[in-house]
Each structure stands twice: as C-alpha cells, then as structure tokens.
Write a structure and sequence with these properties.
The chain is α/β, with parallel strands linked by helices. It contains 13 helices and 19 strands. It has helices at residues 12-27, 51-70, 81-86, 88-93, 109-117, 170-174, 182-194, 217-225, 245-253, 270-275, 282-295, 314-327, 354-379; strands spanning 3-8, 31-32, 41-46, 75-80, 99-101, 122-124, 152-156, 158-159, 178-179, 199-203, 232-236, 260-262, 300-307, 331-336, 383-391, 399-403, 408-411, 421-429, 434-442. A hairpin with a 7-residue loop joins strand 15 (383-391) and strand 16 (399-403). Bound molecules: S-adenosyl-L-homocysteine, iron/sulfur cluster (SF4) and FE3-S4 cluster.
C-alpha cells in the first residue's frame, strides 16, 4: 500500500484541515505513516503568521529535498497559509515540490495527485466563492466520513477574517470571513457524537463573528451544546469586539459549555491597541472580563500577547504586564512581534531590536509563570470535574484528563476509563498540570 506523511504547522485550524487531508488520503487508498522515510507522498500544511514557522517550512523542505534524491518517485505537496501566500513562487524556489495548494483547496487533493502522477507540477490557490458570507466549506457529502481519534474533535464554524489587524497576515492567507450553515455544522457534530466524541471544540479565526440568517454565535453555541450525547463544548478564538454579555450569560447557564475563554488582548496600552487596529480599548476589554468573572467565578482565561510592536515604549510594555496581573490568565501565548509582508505594521516606524523584544518576552514569561503557579496552588484541595482522555504513556494505572477549565490532570491508581466524567479531588500540582484522586463518577 502507498504511504503518506502529513506534517502540520500553525494553529488549530490548520490541525483541523490536516485531519481532513488525512481523511481524503485514506479514501484515496493511502496508509498514513509517522515515518517520513517510508512515505511516497509527503504533505506539509504550513503557517505564515510569524517568520519563525515560515522558516521551519523551508528548512523541512531542504531536508525533504535530500530525501527525495534517494527516493525519486516521492511526491511533495505544500499546502496551507504559506502556500496560499506564495503560490507559484514555491515551485520556482523548490524544485522538489510537485504541488502547492492553498487553504481553500484541500478537497481537490485527489485531482492534484492525479495530475502530478501524470508528470505535471500544479498550483491550486483559488478561493471558494468568498463573495458569499455563508458557505458550507466542508461539503455535505463529506461530513459522514469524519473519523475520530480519542474522545475529542474539532469543528470549523467560520473560516477567514475581515478584521485586518495591522500586524496580521491571516486575512490574506485565509481569505474573507465565511460562516457555515448551522445544519451543516450540526450534522458534523452529530456524526462525531455517534462515533463516540464527548468533547467538541468549535473553531474559527474569530469564532464569535459567526453569523448566518438563522443564527448568531450564541444561538449556534446553544444548539450544539444541547445535542444529546455531548459532554463538553469549547470554542476558540473569540474576538473581544464580538464578545457580549449575552454570551457570558449563556455560558453561565449552560453546564456543557466549559468555563474556559481564550480572549486575545495582544497589548495593554490603548495607543498600541489602536495602532494594531484591534477596535477596542483596554477598559472595554476589562469590563467584559470583569462581567464574566462575576457571572462565572470558576472561569479560566487565556490570551495572546505580542511584545515589541513597532514603537512600543517601556511604559507601554509595562501596561501589558499590568493586564496579566489584573486578569490572572491561566495561560498566555506570548510572541515577539514579527514583521509580515504586505501588512500595515510592516511599514510602521521605529521597529524594535530583537534584543529588546527578547528581553520583554522573557520578563513577561517570568511574571506569567508566577501567576500560573499561584492559580494552580489555589486549586489544591478543591474538587474539579474531569473528562478522562487516555492512559498515561509511562505510569501504569494512571489516567490523564482535563478539568472543565482545560488544565491537564493525571489520576494515579484508578480504574476510570477514557470518555468518563468524574469529580476529582486535587492533591498536588506539577509545573503545567495537576494530580488528583477520584471522588465519584458523574453521569453524562
Ligand atoms: N484571530 C485571533 C488571532 C489569530 S492569530 C485574534 O484576533 O485574537 C494568533 C496569534 O498570533 C495572534 O493572536 C497574535 O498574538 C499572534 N500574531 C499574529 N500576527 C503576528 C505577528 N505579525 N507577530 C507576532 N505575533 C503575531
Ligand atoms: Fe489576525 Fe486580527 Fe483577524 Fe485575529 S482578528 S486573525 S489577529 S486580522
Ligand atoms: Fe498560521 Fe494560517 Fe493558522 S498563518 S496561525 S496556520 S491561520
């Protein structure tokens, strides 16, 4: 049997797209392998959000180039965000690459592979019809074929972004915002639940910008949460601008919607937020956060931060640290600003040195580690609801799971099994996870 290898960079949306690619390749008769050396077909799903992940793609292509010299028949495909952006240029630059396909084109993989086998080099970067704001970018006839691993699954509900933040390349690589029809999403959710999925993660670059004739984001969230057989529902990433108190009230009242919100703030000063074109002030963000905290006391927040945006002063950076102290996030994804071709910020004055960016990043990480440690310490001695994922790979008799707020937890010496929901007493913490013991099994 022919073997295929898929390497994924970037965000969860790319992870979701790669799952579909895998599905398509299985239907085409390929076996999926974790060993690139065994593969006759290699697909790279790329990310260009910062320079770093983009560089990784080119260094991987360098290694593949050498491998291909030993295996001349090997097909190499570059897909995803770098592919969407660079298109034909990748074929010119990398002689080993046979096909380049953008973020809207992976369902066309079978016809691309066919053409490559006929000796062609192909580029597929056309957009689906983006003038339509509503579009079932996962075709109806494909939905039943979504296979699962474990008891969790992701479902994309929107694709693309209309916000054009000044630093960000995503609107270029993912196109304009489109929302999927609710029936199409619910059919995918039901199909996954029937196959044993307990937890669903709704995905979108701006998940709460979801809007169809039928539903707002809150309406869709409720419809999915109400589905029989589902235990937990999460979503990511919501944009602060589209967050309203109604959404908070829905989360507070619906036990299946997990008490976890990833709400990117990016920076702590109003001047930088404006330069970033984020569309809100620090106060507006904090008002929303504070309302959420009063309605859902057990809420866990995470966020994205960019340090060293062009012209960011020491004082402005300090304000970002203040936000961390005020919100007390359980997790912060912090990045050094990276200039992206074609974005507004790439033309801005006073870019900061790598040294200053690194210094600020290290300072921020140090503060966040302390906050996270305090938050985890406070959980010792409390009871948490845990969904069991799988057996610990090394410790016999230990099961791994996640709390409602998505913190990893291990439970030693237990007979709990994957997919069970349990109340767990937290006995101690490790650096990035908790340890607990079973109090009781919960119905779900
Ligand atoms: N739609 C989400 C973000 C998606 S991109 C939102 O608006 O909140 C994921 C994260 O990558 C961003 O939140 C940002 O923190 C980071 N990022 C995007 N472009 C970047 C750049 N040019 N340099 C550094 N970090 C960047
Ligand atoms: Fe990028 Fe801004 Fe869109 Fe997020 S909202 S994907 S940061 S342009
Ligand atoms: Fe990267 Fe594309 Fe996601 S640029 S972060 S893979 S949308």
């Amino acid at each position: 049997m022919q073997k295929a290898y898929i390497q994924t960079f970037g965000c969860q949306m790319n992870g979701y797209d790669s799952q579909w690619m895998k599905e398509i390749l299985l239907e085409e008769g390929y076996d999926i392998t974790d060993e690139v050396k065994e593969a006759g077909l290699v697909l790279i799903n790329t990310c260009s959000v910062r320079e770093n992940p983009e560089n990784k793609v080119y260094s991987l292509l360098g290694r593949l180039n050498r491998l291909k010299r030993q295996k001349p028949g090997m097909i190499i495909g570059v897909g995803g965000c770098v592919a969407q952006q660079e298109g034909e240029a990748i074929l010119k630059r990398e002689s080993s690459v046979n096909m380049v396909f953008g973020t809207d084109c992976f369902f066309q993989l079978p016809e691309m592979i066919k053409q490559v086998k006929e000796g062609k080099r192909v580029v597929y970067t056309d957009w689906l019809e983006r003038h339509r704001k509503i579009q079932n970018f996962i075709p109806d006839e494909k939905i039943e074929s979504a296979r699962i691993e474990g008891n969790k699954a992701m479902i994309a509900i929107t694709k693309g972004c209309d916000n054009f933040c000044s630093f960000c390349i995503v609107p270029t690589t993912r196109g304009r915002l489109v929302s999927r029809e609710a029936e199409n999403i619910i059919a995918e959710a039901q199909s996954l639940i029937k196959k044993g999925v307990k937890e669903i993660l709704l995905l979108g670059q701006n998940v709460n910008s979801y809007q169809t004739h039928q539903f707002s984001f809150a309406g869709l969230l409720k419809s999915v949460a109400d589905l029989e057989g589902l235990t937990r529902l999460r979503f990511t990433s919501p944009h602060p601008n589209d967050w309203d108190n109604g959404l908070t009230d829905l989360m507070a009242s619906h036990p299946k919607i997990c008490n976890q919100i990833h709400l990117p703030i990016q920076a702590g000063s109003d001047r930088i937020l404006e330069l970033m074109r984020r569309g809100h002030t620090v106060m507006e963000y904090l008002d929303k956060v504070n309302y959420i905290k009063t309605k859902i006391p057990s809420i866990s927040f995470s966020t994205d931060i960019i340090v060293g945006f062009p012209g960011e002063t020491d004082d402005e950076f300090e304000k970002t640290l203040e936000i961390l102290r005020a919100v007390r996030y359980s997790h912060v994804y912090a990045f050094k600003y990276s200039s992206r071709p074609g974005t507004k910020a790439a033309e801005m004055e006073n870019p900061l040195t790598e040294e200053i960016k690194q210094e600020r990043l290290s300072k921020l990480i140090l503060l966040q580690e302390k906050i996270q440690e305090d938050l985890f310490s406070q959980l010792i001695g409390t009871k948490q609801t845990v969904l069991i994922d799988n057996a610990h790979p090394k410790e016999n008799g230990t099961m791994n799971g996640r709390t409602d707020s998505n913190i990893p937890i291990s439970i030693p010496e237990t007979d709990l099994t994957s997919g069970e929901l349990a109340e767990v007493f937290i006995t101690r913490k490790k650096q990035y996870s908790l340890v607990g013991r079973l109090v009781r099994r919960l119905p779900h």
